[in-house]
User: Fold this.
Amino acid sequence: MGYMPRTDVYLKVELDLDPKESPERVAAEICRLISRVYSVRRAEVSSIMPRETS
Assistant:
């Protein structure tokens, strides 16, 4: 197989969550889905930043 360059892709995802839902759990699920669907080498959460509603 030929040379396949690695590429980092950074995504910003804004979520509206139920107050009972854990942002960490949802973020982990998004990583699992990305890994499974796109066969990525690694998916990780780098930060979770709560926002005040305006």
Summary: The first helix runs from residue 23 to 38. The chain has a mean pLDDT of 89. The chain is about 30% helix and 0% strand.
